[in-house]
């Protein structure tokens, strides 16, 4: 990890500590400590298991997609991919560093750059599609509650949905209408020329068009393998399910046994969507505010609400960054992509 990334990592930790301290301004530390030691450890362990399973399933997805072409790709290296992704998602605005971070990890193992990019793009397409599907379900269940209780947050929710929806539309256009997409992309990309030198502009434009071609070719290849695609879609759906359930188990740990699993999960899906709109790494500030705003009607104790928010952020944000930093220290296994290709299954 570079010096800049280390600095950003420490900065985000300090910002998190500052936000937690601010959230505790009306809560006595003694009460918070009492609530912590009153937690049901069983449900807290289940919540922790959810984030672990979330990361393990993504590693399985990576292994499935890469091993379909490179037989010697190990599960250890597949596991490093989502862990490093968590780190760079957490320290970059709009989680923009996650994809490059994954690419670097895969290149370290010896996977061909073009193949690695194609796999990551396909994984991203499926992931975004499942986010939209889950979010649409959550709108049907919990949007009325958000619109009634906090109409100002409902605007963020809808805006977040539209952004993700248009991302999916754009990706589907690349997959099924690449020629038109490339023409539109070149038109929309022209303003970049005003801000960068011609040489850099041409290099960026070529790279962008190559990525469109890579995604199209990968979609065609996987499209010929419906069983593989269905497997990745189902794994991604369940992966997100474990992630979205974390606040529900935290509420059970706090003693809120009557929590509605569907409503709590739907609210968490909306929070994740709202977080994606904030440019600050990890959505810091916006994430905590959204959580407290949406769950204060369910968690009536102010100290327990703050404790739930702290536990949620530790599990869904800081844990990922810590294990991601540790994953960078693990030496990758090496594969020779040119000699370990697996013929695609028909």
Which SSEs are present, and which pair or pack?
Elements lengths: L2 H21 L5 H9 L3 H27 L7 H17 L6 H12 L3 H37 L1 H26 L1 H12 L8 H26 L2 H19 L1 H8 L7 H15 L10 H10 L6 H27 L18
Structure description:
This protein is mostly helical and 346 residues long. The protein has one domain (3-176, 229-333). Helix content is 77%, strand content 0%. It contains 14 helices and no strands. Helix 4 packs across helix 14 (302-328) and helix 6 packs across helix 10. It is globular, with a radius of gyration of 21 Å. The chain starts with a helix and ends in an 18-residue tail after the last helix.
Strand content: under 5%
SSE string: HHHHHHHHHHHHHH
Overall 3D shape:
globular
**Termini separation:** 40 Å
Overall mean pLDDT: 85
* CA-based gyration radius: 21 Å
Helix content: over 70%
Structural class: mainly alpha
Number of strands: 0
Number of domains: 1
Ranges where pLDDT stays below 50 over 5 or more residues in a row are 339-346
Number of helices: 14
| Main sheet makeup | none
